[in-house]
Amino acid sequence: MFKKSNRDRVSKIIESNLDYLVRFAYFRLGNRAEAEDLVYDAILKFLEKDSEDIKPRSVRLYLFRIVYNLCQDKIQTEKINLTLNENLNLEDFAEEPLDLEEADRINSYLESLDPREGEIIRMNVIDNLSFVEISNILGIPQSTAKSRYKAGMERLRKLFFNDKMS
Questions:
Q1: CA 127 to CA 112: how far, in whole Å?
Q2: Beta-carbon count within 10 A of 148 CB
Q3: What backbone phi and psi angles, to 5 degrees, belong to 122?
Q4: How far apart are CA 127 and CA 121, in angstroms?
Q5: pLDDT tens by residue, 131-162
Q6: Residue 53 has what DSSP assignment?
Q7: How many Å apart are CA 122 and CA 30, to the nearest integer?
Q8: Could you give the CA distance from residue 93 to residue 81 in angstroms, rounded to a whole number?
Q9: Do 122 and 85 form a contact (C-beta atoms < 8 A)?
Q10: Residue 30 DSSP symbol
Q11: Is the entire prediction scored with pTM above 0.90?
Q12: What's the half-sphere exposure (Cβ side, CA atoms, 13 Å) at 52?
């Protein structure tokens, strides 16, 4: 359990990141109710941990890591092969109305990438996570996250350019 002095800080960090965590899970699972349940489970899992080792400033990354791992487990155990454009209403979380046709096109480009590259691009562009946060969540070096992002973006540019030329 967190020290009393840190409990309020941790509680505020969790509360301020709830929407981001649900969005993060939603874009991986494609179902808002499942995403909310999974985030709830992640918070419970987090609170059950021996928190003496966890600094309040690491809470956000720790939660994203747990949510990411739970999503991966759920996808693997249920053999879900979802894409962002299947049964997904992107407008649920968009800050401004989204052009769904454009979103479908972008998602089809992302799906054509190596899954590791596509995931990092989604985490950076859609989830607004930094490369430090991405590397901590995925358990990879920051340089690997950056190089996968760069390689994926280069492939996306080529795909986009080839489509424009067609």
A1: 20
A2: 22
A3: -60, -45
A4: 9
A5: 999 999 999 999 999 999 999 988 888 877 77
A6: G
A7: 14
A8: 21
A9: no
A10: S
A11: no
A12: 1
